[in-house]
Input
Amino acid sequence: MSITSFHPPVRILMGPGPSDVNPRILEAMSRPTIGHLDPIFIAMMDEMKGLLQYAFQTKNELTFSVSAPGSAGMETCFVNLLEPGDKVIICQNGVFGGRMKENAERCGAVPILVQDPWGAAVDPHKLEETLKSHPDAKVVAFVHAETSTGACSDVKTLVEIAHRNDCLTIVDTVTSLGGSPLKVDEWGIDAVYSGSQKCLSCTPGLSPVSFSERAAERIRTRQTKVQSWFLDLNLVMGYWGGGGKRAYHHTAPINALYGLHEALVLLQEEGLEKAWERHQRNHQALGAGIEAMGLRFVVKEEERLPQLNAIAIPEGIDDTTVRTRLLQEYGLEIGAGLGEMAGKIWRVGLMGYGSNPRNVLVFLGALEAVLHDLGADIEPGVAIRAARAVW
Output
């Protein structure tokens, strides 16, 4: 058997991630590979730290990119801040709160769940009541932008409640960074992690993280070793720490970091607030088109994410048939529901470079055509007219 070079087709990525990658990022990743301890590369690492501080809106010294996907960013936060026997309050309103619970258990910690319906934001009152019942809790963890449902929770309020009860906070911002307002210092977040492949529009495989000084002190004064050698921040920061002298820890994914650097430069060029506004504007246009077709969102408007749209599948329409036809006939990918929402929703991403009018119009036209062909009662052209009216 003779295997030849792999050439993937060009797709329009409108699922829950990865998102469309800006050509400037792909070009950046094709640049010459240099050593991970080369002074030039170290200078780029220092620039990236500043760019990440801007994206997170923080001055945290302990801000860098984990050399692995967002799931490793999650694990970095949990394994460094939790020790065996620690009690952690975990707010779950979708799949990724469940993954937080798994991380806590593997650290030997004791997770206490605060559960809300899938498709709703985390209820601050439930968190407050749970903390009153567990005054010995040390950490509160929750998801800002729940990718499995499209719901956005009130980070500022949840962090305030946690701090009033003397808890550190771990916040998942994998889908929110660069797409929704996120202010780490102003809101007082202690540990935050994200991913490169969502609203930053880079390729998957990197996880930006940031830790407050309060969290860093907890890490420095641990009574037990961090269970993961690779993710132990007491070791990693010897490589990512400031200054020209770096201690070898691991071989960094050099070209991938070129890409993330370029993604963050693009975010800086656009301006963070303008990026947030663009995501919201395109979401509103998409929403107008969806509702004009007679479809509905599963998340109420005030809790809805602009970059991840959860749309209820109409009665009598097969989930897989629609997604397969969109991919095969239009080269367009959307996401299926997860967990208890499997088969009930489509997850439509408008993230980063992919949050643009072209993608909105292509998607609405393609979905309208497929649904009409499957017998749905939709007036041709109604969705695109509605979207255009928003812009």
Remarks:
- The chain has a mean pLDDT of 96.
